[in-house]
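Appendix C reproduces, verbatim, an entry submitted by the partner laboratory led by Prof. M.T., so that reviewers can inspect both the input and the predicted structure.
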Amino acid sequence: MLASVVSSGNERLAMIPATAAPLLDFEPIPFPPMPLDFSTVAIVLDADFGAQLHELASRVPVWIADTPGNRSSIESEWTRRRRDGADRELNVFRMIDGLSPSDHIAALLRTIDSQHGAAAEDGPFATLLVFGAPADAAPVAALRAIGGGFPVATADGFRVEFAR
């Protein structure tokens, strides 16, 4: 049986028998993951979005409310990013008592637009997905102020297209 020599410079550090387990012992990914779509950004206000986060965060940048119902899924996505090098852009925020979901959306839009808007290195986002809140006057005014169109209701929130 052949053995491998692991060395550093002129020093011999160890002999590894050919029957030893590989140094990198993990399952290869069967196909390369799709890169994130930076043309879409999601805001999640749903306090129990949890299990749905993996699928969404694997496709688009996500801004999600830190709630007991979302916490374990948020931590799982952070672990995937560290352990597997998974491409994730996951931003967590705390809901402020006394503010409505619409107020949170309006406040988040300033930050999201500064990070994913016209100055973004990946290009500006063109679609905003919102989960866990209806489109009422406060977010509509904030969306219109940064170039958003009129929201279209979805089963669990709304979607807005931007002319950019």
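Strands lie at 3-8, 11-17, 40-44, 62-65, 90-93, 127-131, 152-154, 157-161. Additional entries are available on request from the coordinating office.
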